[in-house]
Amino acid sequence: MTSISSRRLRKELSEIQTEGCPTGITLLNADNFETWYFSIEILGESLYQGEVFKLMFRFDSSYPISAPAVQFVVNQESTAPVHPHVYSNGHICASILGTEWSPVLSVSAVCVTLQSMLASCKSKERPVDNDRYVRYAPDNPKKTRFHYDDDTV
Amino acid sequence: MDYVEQPNSNLICCICHAPFTNPTTARTCLHTFCHDCITIAVQHSPQCPIDRSSLSLDDLSPANPIVKHLVDELIIECPNRVSGCAQTFQRQLLSTHIKDACQYVEIPCSEEQCDKLILRKDVGKHQDACVYRSTQCEGCGAIIKYSDLSTHNLECPSKSATCSFCFEEFPRSQSHEHATTCLDYEILCTQANNGCSWTGPRRQLSEEHVLSCPYEAIKGFFSINSAQISSLNTENAVLRQKVYTLESAVQTMQRDIQTFRNVLGPWYRSHTQDQTPSAPFVPPSINTFDHLFSAPSGPSPSSSRTTAQPSSSADHGEFATHNEIDALAPYFPLQHEHAFQESHNYPRSRRSFSGIVDPHLSQRTLPLTPVAPLNLSTSLEGSLSGLRDSIAAVSTSVDSLARRNDIALTNESMRLNEELGSLKYAVHGIRLQLHRLMMDRNAQVTGRGGELPLGLPGNQTIFHPPISMMAPPFPGTPGTKL
Ligand SMILES: [Zn+2]
Ligand SMILES: [Zn+2]
Ligand SMILES: [Zn+2]
Ligand SMILES: [Zn+2]
Ligand SMILES: [Zn+2]
Ligand SMILES: [Zn+2]
Ligand SMILES: [Zn+2]
């Protein structure tokens, strides 16, 4: 399993390095096969024009059979986008990161999906249960069982 | 695995992103994956990773053979490219290449003891250099390890050896034999055991040295001498054993003597102390009697602690005798005095009306009781016989005391019997008088029956104490006259 995940990640990394990331996505750091960082921005007309966010991918040995843990980085330098499916601690309520994950998906596929999720946003607001969730949220968003109420995501 | 050319994207598994390994197709949706990849994915989530249609392990089957051939014939580079193998070959030949052909695979040395791993291309080189390789001895033809060759050369029986004395050459196997026969071999004189320091070639010993050797001349003496010495040695060993036995016996005895000495305590005196009584053995622990012996020039004033002790100005010579008297004298005179005192006290003890010794009396007699000081300067036997005598005297006096007590007791009880008789008589008289008085009174009471204070039907027993209550005599102190 470990070798499958690291072989697959090595492949993905070499693809990113040879073919480059999708537009608006930049690889910041991929020093190991456990944690990768990307920057993400929404190009064109959107509520997030001019904003740059930072994404963190955490992989375990079951990748790509199970999804990576993906969240926006929240610290002094960067914040999570204000979005009905993004909590203020950076956790994302997106079905492809949970039940809808498929081994066919890849890191760049996830990045593109999140990009389009932000681009299609109509009003910048936090999820309704943001405060309650953030107070009790686990460190790893994969430990949360989100209820995916919005089929558009 | 690195592919020489970028494989066709149709041959790429979308789970591992590499060309299929054991391509496996889902019968339901006809998607193809590596066998291992789709098995793990379906176990995790029973659906096709691509179209999410439901999928179980039973729906999987080997892919079309064409697909299998396409991936198996992809050209790959040798995984040992980093080590130096530049070969490329079809993917399906990988295991054969690694197993047999690749020169850059590390394989263990064929010699069992050698633990080196050698690249296959270097095996031939190593076999000639391996210290554990087998090699044949040129002399004797034995097969030995190369590492043992130098050891073997020293002992190989076929290698020739040169005598360092006669320079004759002969096979090494005969070297021992040669040493015993070589005439030039340097040997010791036959009398070397007896002290001859001569060494020289063997030929000279019999030809020259034996004739001049001073030890050889007295050979006979040496043999006799050595026989004697050996018998003496044997005897010596026996004697040494005996001495050892005796020493241990002496040690045991010394321990016993020490034990006796401890048990005897002050009565232990060495023979010399016995003959000089001016310094008798006085253990420091018995200080009470120190004064008896501490002034040998004359008796100390306190030594006449009993009245019967005759004071004498004893000198050194008489001191031992004086001590004997000192030790034993007190018993007898005091015994008589005590007996006298007892009889003298008898009237008083009789007045005390009991056999119990009056405390005042015993206090008076106590100073006269002989408490013999232990005379440590006498022999133990003397002391024991002295003690025995005094015990005999004490038992005699106890005897006479008991007899006297018997007599006193008999006298006393006779007198008491008399007194008791007269008392009985008097009490009887009183009882008669009292009875008469009570009868008179009863007659008076019954005469005025209607005036009974309690209105009882004329029963007189209320006022009449039972006779039995009056029967015992009044308790009186002994000797009280009625
Ligand atoms: Zn499918
Ligand atoms: Zn695969
Ligand atoms: Zn090779
Ligand atoms: Zn070797
Ligand atoms: Zn040999
Ligand atoms: Zn020789
Ligand atoms: Zn000699």
Number of helices of chain B: 16
Rg from alpha-carbon coordinates of chain B? 66 Å
The ligands found in this model are: zinc ion
User: Strand share of the residues of chain A?
Assistant: 15-25%
Helix content of chain A: 10-25%
Query: Which CATH C-level class of chain A is it?
Result: Alpha Beta
Give the radius of gyration of chain A. 15 Å
Measured by residues with Cβ under 8 Å of the partner chain's Cβ, the largest interface is: A-B, 16 and 15 residues
Portion in helices of chain B: 40-55%
**How many strand segments of chain A?**
4
Main sheet specs of chain A = 4 strands, antiparallel
Strand order of the largest sheet of chain A: 1-2-3-4
Q: Could you state the oligomeric state of the chains shown?
A: heterodimer
SSE series of chain A: HEEEEHH
Order of secondary-structure elements of chain B: EEHEHEEHEEHEEHEEHEEHHHHHHHHHH
How many distinct helices of chain A?
3
Low-confidence stretches of chain B: 275-326, 328-367, 449-482
Q: What is the end-to-end distance of chain B?
A: 146 Å
